[in-house]
Structures are given as C-alpha cells and as structure tokens.
Amino acid sequence: MRSFLNRVSHWVGPDIAGPGAAFIAVMIVFSIGSPQFLTGATFGSVAFQLPELGLLTLAMLLPILTGGLNLAITFTANIAGLTVAWYLQKNGGVDAGPGAFLIGSLLAIGVGALSGLLMGLVIAYTKAHPILVSLSMMIFLRGLGEFLTRGGDVSGFPAFLQPIGHGSILGVPIPLLILIACVLLWHVLLTRTKLGFGTYMIGSNIEAARYSGINTRKVLVLVYMLSGAMCAIAGIIMLARFNSVRVGHGESYLLITVLACFLGGVNPFGGFGRVIPVFLALVVLQLLSSGLNLMGANQHLATAVWGILLIAVMLLRWASSHFKIFKRKKG
Amino acid sequence: MRKIIQSHATEFALLAVILLISLFLSLATERFFTLGNAFDLLNTSSVNIIFAVGLLVVLIAGGIDISFAVAASVVQYVAALLLESIGGGGWISGLVIAAVLGVSLGAINALLIHRFKIISIVATIATFNIYFGLLMFFTRGVSIYNLPDWLTSRVILFEHEMADGSWVEITLPVLVMVVCVIATWVLITRTTTGRQLYAFGDNPEGARRFGINVGAMQFIAFGWLGLMAGIAGLIQAHYAQEVVPNALYGRELDVLAAVVLGGARLGGGKGTVLGCVLGVLMISITQNGLNLMGVSPFAFKMIIGAIILVAITLSNTSIERLLPFMREGARR
Amino acid sequence: MTEPSGAHAGPRPLLSLRNINMTFGGVKALKNVSFDVLPGEVHCLAGENGSGKSTLIKIITGVYRPEPGAVIDYDGQTYAQMSPVTAQNGGIQVIWQDLALFPEMTVAENIAFQTLLGRWPRFVNYGHMREIAIRALKKLGVTLDVDLPLKDFPIAQRQIVAIARALVGEAKIVFMDEPTASLTQSETDHLLEIVRTLSTSGVAVVFVSHRLAEVLEISSRLTVLRDGALVGVYPTEGLTQSRITELMTGRTFDQHVRAKTRDANPVVLEVKNLTRPGQFEDVSFTVRKGETLGITGLLGAGRTEIALSLFGMSKPQSGEIFLDGKPVRFSSNREAIEAGVAYLSEDRLSLGLIQPQSIADNLVIASLDGIRSGGLLSDERKQRLVAQWIADLGVKIGKQTDAISTLSGGNQQRIAIAKWLATDPKLLILDAPTVGVDVGARAGIFEIVAKLAESGLAIILISDEVPEVYFNADRVLHMAGGRISGAFDPRQCTLKDIEAAVYA
C-alpha cells in the first residue's frame, strides 16, 4: 500500500502543481460561466481536438529536454502526410487498400525520422544551435511541401481512413487512443530507458554527460529522429481527420507546443520536465479553448488566453519562489 | 588587413557568397545586374532589414524575441484606427504613434523578463500568442483598406529613367531603412549604452558587478526592437497599401534566421549591423535571382532553407578548419 | 605560535569594516565581521569555501548590501553600504576569480571598461580607450594586441588583462580573488612581481585565497574567516601553511607518508612511450594492483592530457597502453569505462558532475546497465544501489532526489568517486580530487582513496599540490613540459625534495 502511495506521489510530483491548479481553475470558472460546459459534448470535442496538438507537443518535448528546440515539427508532419497521400494515390487513390496505407504510414514515419536524423547529425556533430538548425529545416520543408503541392490541397483518400480520424472504440475517440499510447510510450522512454536518462543529463550539461560515458551524439541524433517520427504520426492523424493534406496545416500549433511544454513545468533550458504534467497542460489548453467556444468566443481569443495562462503560471512560480525566501528569512 | 578579416570573418564570408551568387546570376540572367533590379531589391528588403536590426539588438543583449512581428501587426492596425480617428494625420504623427505603440509592446516583454524573471523565449512566446490572439479576436480578421492617402501613396525620393526605358526608384521605405540601420549602428558601436549592451550579453554577471543597470539594458534592447517593429509595421502598411492583421505572422522566424546567418549569436554578446543587413540581403538576392531565372516561386523557400541549413552547418564547422591561419594569428 | 594582533597604533587603515552581517535564505553568511586594510600593505584574506570571503568582497565592492548597522570607513568617508560605482570611483578594484571579463569585446575595451560605464549614453572614444589600455599594459611590462577580441587569448593573458583593468583607475586597493589558481609557476612569479611594484607605489593588495603558499612570503598580515565569523588577524611573519590550515578549519591535522611497496602485485596498467605532440611526449610508467601512483607537476605539464588519453577521450599519436597485459586502444571513453578505466575529472563543477541533476542520477550515470531489470531501468534498483554507496562512502545527504549542487564539495566528490566505483573499475584516475574541497574534508577523501587501494584498485592520483601526492601516493612521478622528468619514493625523500624539483 505504501509503495503504491509512493508511486502515486511519484507520478504526481511537484511539477504538476502549475498545470493542476490551472486545470482546477478552468473547470471551476467554466462550470460557473457556462451550464453546458460540464457535459459530454465538451469533453467529446476536447477528445477529438487534443491529439494533433498533443502528438506535436510530444515531438517538441524531447528536443526541449535536451536543451534544444525543434521548430520543424509542423512541416515535418505535413511532409509525412504528403508521403502517405503520395503512396495512396500511387496505389489507386480512393480505392487503395489498407496495406497501401500501412506501407505509406511506415514510409511517412521514415521520412519524419529522416528529417530528424539530418537535424540531429548537424546539431550533434557541428554544435550548431538547434533553434537555427531546425528553423532552416522548417523553411526547407515548408518550401519542399509547397513545391510539391503547388500550395494546394491533396485529397481523395480511401473511405476506411475515416474512422482513424473520427471513429471511436468504446466511446473513446481513436485519435485520443493513439495519443494516449504515445504519451505512455514517451513516459516509459523518458523514465525507464538509457536514452531517456541520457536526454535529461544532456539537457543539464552535455559535456559532463559525455565525460560520464554517455554517448551524447547518439542520444541527440535519436532524440531528433524520434521527434521527427512523432511528427509523422501527427501528420497521419491530421490526414485522416481532414481527409486532405495541405502544407501549412497545423502551422499555428508550432509555438503552442512550446507553450504547452513550459506550462507543463518543462525547464526551458532543458534537463527537467515530465510527460504527465505536459499532458495535463495540453488538456487544460484544450478545455480552455472549448470552454471559450461555448461562451461564444473564437479560437483567437483562446490563443490569447493561452498566452496569458502561461504568463500567469510563470508569475505564480516567481511569486512562490519569492515567498519561500521571504519565509525562510523570517524563520 | 588580416586583423579586419579575422574580426569580421562572418561578414566577409557572407559578402563573398553574395558576390559569388551575384556573379552567377549576372551571367545567368540579363535582368539581375541592372540598377533597376538592385533598387527593387532594396525596396522589397527594407521592412525585413528594419526588423532585423531591431532583433539584432535584443540578440546582442542575450535575449530572443518571437513576438516582434505580430507586435508590428498590432501597431499597424491600432495606428491605422488611431489615424482614422484623428482625421488622417500625416507621416510625423503616424511615425510617432507607431513608435510609441511599438516601444510600449517591447516594454511589456522587458517588464516580464526583468521584473518577473521569465526567460525571454518563454515570455515572448506568451506575448506572441496574446498579441496575435487579441488582434485577431478584436479585428475578427478584417483587413483595413481605406488608409489615409498620405500613407498609401508611393513616395519616390529619387527616380531616373535608364537608357532602356526602365525606371530606377528609391522610395521612402529605403530612406527609413537606411535611417534605422544607421541609428542602430551608432547605438551599438558608438555609444556607451551600446557597448554596455554587448557587455551585458557577453557576461551578464560581470556586467552586474560593474554596476551596469541590468533592468535598463533589457528595457533598452526590447524597447529598441519595439521601436523598429513599430516603424517597420507602419512602413509595411505603406508598402502594401493595406493593413492585413495576419500579414506579418510567421515573419519572426524568417528574420531570426537571417540575423543569425549574419553572425549574431543566440546567447548574446556578438553580432554586427553589417552582418545582419548582409544576412537579409543574401536571402532576398537569392530569392530575386531564382525569380529572374524563372524558377517556380514554390521552389524558392525550399532552396533558401537548404542554403541556410548548409550555411549554418558550415559556419559551425569549417571556417576555422578551412582558414587555420586566422586562429594562429591570434595565439602568439 | 602566533597570536592575533590587537588594536595597533600603526598607520590609519585605508579601509575599515565593522559590524558586517549578511544572511542568504536563512543562512548567516557573515556574522559581525570586522576587516581592516592599511594603505600600501599586502594582505591575505583566508578561509575555506563558504567561509564568507567572497561575500565580504562583494559587500566591499557594493555588489551586495550588508544588513543595517554596518559601518564601512573608506579613505576618510563613512558609508552604510557601497555601490559598485562609488567603490570603483573611490579606487576599489577587484580581480574576480572568474575574471568577469568580456570575451567577445576587444582587449582595449576590457581594460578601459570603466570609460563605458555611467547611466547616460555618451559617444565612445575608441582612440582614448586604446591609449588607456596600452598605458595600463605597459605598467605591467606586457604587450598585447589590444584590438583583438579577448577570446583569442589564453587564460593567463586574460588574467593580465583583468589586472590591467584594475590598474586603470586611480586604484588605492586591489582585491585578487584566487589569482594563482589558473597560473603556472612563472606566471605566478610574474604576478607576485607586479604585486610588489603596486605595493611600493602605495596601492594596497588583498589576496583572497585558501592556498596561500605562494603569496604568504610577500604579504604582511593575514585575516582568517571561518563559517562567516572572524577568527583573527595575524602577522604573517613565521606563519606556516599548516598553521593557516588549522586556523581555517579549527582542527589540527597530522599527516604521515602512507607509501608502501607493492612490487609483488601484478601490473594493471602499463604505458609505453605514449606521445601526443604538443601535450605529452614519450611517457612510460606502470601502475600495479593496489598501488597509488602520484603524478604532480605544474599546470600545463601534460598531467590531465595523459589521463584523458588513458580514458579514451583523446587519441595518442604513438606509443602503447596495456591493461592487464593486453594492448588496448580506445576510440571513446565508453570503451575505456567498459575495459575498467575510470576518470574523476579535475573540473567537478562543469565536467565531473551534472550539478542541477539529482544525487542518485549522478551516481548511476556511468553504470546504467547495472540498474536494469527486464530491459528497463528500475527505480528500486537505483535507490538500493545509491543507498548502498552512500553508506559505504559515508556521504551525508538529505534525499537521493536532491540536486547534487546542494551538497558540500567534499560530499560531491564522494558521490563522484562512487559513480566510478559503481562501474567496477580496475584503474581509477583521480585528477585533482581536492579542488574546491574544504581543507577539513580532504583528509576524508584520502581515507577513501587509501581504502580503495587496499582493496586492490590501481589508482593514479594527479595533483599540483605536492604534499597531497607526497603523503598519499606509493610512488610519485614529476611531469614537466609533457615529459616525465623525475620519480620519487616518498619514504626516501622529503617533501622539499619534490617541491624543489617541481618549482625549479
């Protein structure tokens, strides 16, 4: 029993306080503000909107933990989506079979990982700043995507893709199930594997990690590859949800994913941050936008409120650290 | 001479690359190596250069700003509304309004960063979302087309008809850009405040021990970028002859790439106005050249992204390895 | 025995502090401290890490404000607190341990930095700055290219720049915080020469240090701090390093030579003609099971470079390394660790340990395979392993999940040793294991080293403090200019013999 409690408290941790408080605040405010808020419809819409942003945030999380950033995530997702679309169209378009989709998806994940591999190699071997490397990769991929699609939509996919974007199993949307699976995968990766361990250590001090026998180059390359692969999964989900691929889809998510990570207590300099609080932060962001929608506001106001929420959490963190020093001085 | 090359390696490398590209484009296309095209380039790059020199100051002081482009959108929109409410105004009142609004938005960033100890990337990502979200919410995404006449009419400062009948023009944005570039250059290289900014970005703790006012540094850096963003916003509205609330969305990362290409360092203490201008120009020259060569506009960005990626990779690896004498010279 | 000198009727102090108190987050950093400096004297301010030396300097220079009640008399004026600007304008200069220089700026700007200060913007006069810089360097008898950025110069020359900067203004008193830590002997000699010149020209110099051997001879008085309180002020005449150590720690140490013969033990490491041009040349030695081999020499003698090659982090150009009689050639430190080589870095703060991360993670980082179960890392196994090592090495910690930076230097070093012991090494290389460790805690580290050797580990102990290797190693090698220039048996020579060889 004790060890179970320990485990629960370990899961909860102190870094969950920020998003946890925000979660409670959001629930209370909207329950009072809008009678429809505490209904299945709200949570249904959250459950369907969460996965795209969530998967991209997972892709952003790993590089941030190493002290970097991957600004290419949204366009990596687009390019991966294009890869699937290309393979499906090559194999009959609307009439393509599930096998073609499966192979296409694997190809897409490969493409995503390849973009990550390239960034990881440059970052690991030249020590160029990840912001710059991923920024130029982003500009490149955006250009590549626009070049391939001439700025238009690609659509016309087989009908069996519908459920992946819109279906449910036992009332739980399939995209959400995929997200939860990926969240758990990332959690295990970060807490229970050598790669995850190395990710945190590199984030705090890459040279000291190298002196301690961690293969820092390998870890960096793998981190960006996994980030790219996760983008690809997001890209496939987006393809299924919109039944089309357009370069620029989800572009506005880019900085939101960074915001979600910081809101979830991830250290902006790397080295600290856990998946579960980040997941909770994502739920809060999505509840906020759904709640505001119910009250008649649009997504843009929600975006602004997200920014305000991030500042509020940072201010609280600042105030609490001040308060602590103040208290100790007195005692 | 070696000393100059050594201390400005990035600028010389960029200049060399720009010359190479220009040489190639002059041979490959007829139109590239004409005065008219050169001035076109300047006219179109003006807004980005104004942004770039502003961002440079923040990078030198060790910060980063993601919000400046949407801040410029906020400025141009609010300025357009204000100008309408005061019955039109003119260039003077327009610039004053834009400058005040821009500096205020920059000061909000500085306040969050200095007073509440939020690191600059977090603070400016938050304000990026706030500025853009509120702008889109209150404007409902509606553009403004009926701007005052003085703002939309082209101001040509110099024009000359060439022998082949084409026109060479220098327009107002170029003049404003030149003023901004010179002002920034004076600030960061010729004034004690500018050198304090470098010192603060280079070694914040050291600067603090010398009694440099850290808060003032943040407000000056972000205020300057705010000022430049405000001016750039107004000039962009003048250039485009309309105010579209999301027109500048996404510009921040392009400008950041150009500034860093020009040798500024994320982390502070390094960067020059010349490098920064060359960084922007290199990207616009490439784009311009590709355009003249008849390359599909959709391929531009891809090629530019690839060029930046290669440039960053090379600048981090081999400059020192390719030119070892530069290091040895210093190590006596 | 030297006794604190009481109120003396000598010259009026240039600087006099009374009632200095300072608290950080509930911890009293300074308790009612007094401190005097006479005009033109050379004064030592000694104390262990955390004794309050740096805090005191930061109060004198206005970086920190003391608690109310403080009295600072300086040059005929009385202040309740200083500000950086008043201090600098009044002629108080500091050469910080980290130098507080600006690497991207030119030498001229660094030296004439004061001309850039001030609240209101002015235009910069570069010509004037160059003149100031060249004049200041001339005072020191040094020529540097003042137009190059500072980052192009090695650390010793940067230190000269820092000194030159301190001399630009009308300096009346110069504080030097651990000035010799990164200098070679000849550079130190040069520095001491400069200090003498300053002192005769009427500038007071205060050395802040916990290693005083070099500066003791040229200083006249010594102020000792311990745990934020004043221990006393002593004339340096006849004071020995061991007496100072007693004053700083409040304890007495008696050291004896531990060396024993281990010739019967099998050879663990054999190095033959190892060469890496520019770093070390033609180095050969052996280390036996259970043996502690001391390597000493000045900074830049190639000690650390050899260690890094043995640890697979740099490739020797020629020569051979045998481990347990088998030739080895590592292409990374991971291979070295695998083969049983462990290397404790000299730079614990930035290379040895990952300061923000937890004690537990720092301890297991090099032996992750040992805490795996079913392919995944196990938290329980990690906790058990850490608990066991902490008990074995007698480390005092709060929680395993606390950041390692919360520990004292001595306890951090024990965790660093535990980290390498957990990899089950054959050979442990300890590079300057007592840097940043309080004098009082050093003995404890060497107790552990002795025990490890007794249990059969081969140990290479690298230190630039000759007494450390003299007392704790079985054999001592002296390195100079990348070569081994002498071998000593501590049982058959005196400490002076080795010191004479090293500092010759």
Descriptive account of the structure:
The complex is a heterotrimer of chains A (331), B (332) and C (504). With 331 residues, chain A is mainly alpha-helical. Helix content of chain A is 76%, strand content 3%. Chain A has a single domain (41-315), classed as ABC transporter involved in vitamin B12 uptake, BtuC (Orthogonal Bundle). Chain A contains 14 helices and four strands. Chain A has a two-stranded antiparallel sheet. A two-stranded antiparallel sheet of chain A has the order 2-3. In chain A, strand 2 (168-169) and strand 3 (172-173) form a beta hairpin. In chain A, helix 3 crosses helix 12 (253-263). The longest helix of chain A is centred in the C-terminal third of the chain and has 32 residues, at 299-330. Chain A starts with a helix and ends with a helix. The model of chain A is unreliable at 325-331 (pLDDT under 50). Chain B has a two-stranded antiparallel ribbon. The radius of gyration of chain B is 20 Å and the shape is globular. The model of chain B is unreliable at 318-332 (pLDDT under 50). Chain B has a single domain, classed as ABC transporter involved in vitamin B12 uptake, BtuC (Orthogonal Bundle). Chain B has helices at 2-7, 9-28, 35-60, 68-85, 91-115, 120-139, 149-152, 172-190, 192-202, 204-209, 214-240, 251-261, 273-292, 297-322, 324-330, and strands spanning 156-161, 167-171. Chain B is mainly α and 332 residues long. Chain B starts with a helix and ends with a helix. By secondary structure, chain C is of the alpha/beta class. Chain C folds into four domains: 15-91 and 171-249, P-loop containing nucleotide triphosphate hydrolases (Rossmann fold), CATH 3.40.50.300; 105-169, no CATH class; 253-340 and 426-504, Rossmann fold (3-Layer(aba) Sandwich); 358-424, no CATH class. Chain C has 17 helices and 22 strands. The longest helix of chain C has 16 residues, at 185-200. Chain C is globular. Chain C starts with 14 loop residues before the first strand and ends with a helix. The model of chain C is unreliable at 1-8 (pLDDT under 50). Chains in contact: A-B, A-C, B-C. The interface between A and C is medium-sized, with 26 and 28 residues. Chain B: This is Sugar ABC transporter permease. Chain B: One of its GO terms (molecular function) is transmembrane transporter activity. Chain B: Keywords: Cell inner membrane, Cell membrane, Membrane, Transmembrane, Transmembrane helix, Transport.
